[in-house]
Amino acid sequence: MKHRRMARAVLNDFVLREVQRLRLVRIARGEIEPNCEREGFFQWSLLEGHRPKYADFILPPLLFSWEQAAIEMGEDAPSAS
Fold first, then answer.
1. pLDDT tens, residue by residue, 21-60
2. Does the model's pTM come out above 0.70?
């Protein structure tokens, strides 16, 4: 039986989640600064001595894309309200 390639949507979701994870790793190392409130809270949690789970700060791909679009347009990151 041949191995099937991942569907494009599944692959795109995987890539967006991995991009978020790698950004959080680099923030934890101090290599980059956060560019949204979510990443800022992750950094604050680290500075306070907590060990936050990366998965708690990774958004679903659609929300991540929306957040990035808002940042690129110069708006504040989307809020919960």
1. 999 999 999 999 999 999 999 999 999 999 999 999 999 9
2. yes
Token digits for 46?
Answer: 């680290």
Q: Give the residue extent of every domain in the chain.
A: 8-72
Pure H helices in 1-81: 8-29, 37-47, 61-72
**Distances, alpha carbon 80 to alpha carbons 11, 48, 63, in Å:** 28, 24, 12
Degrees to nearest 5, angle at CA 40 with 67 and 27: 100
CA-nearest of 62, 64, 61 to 39 is: 64
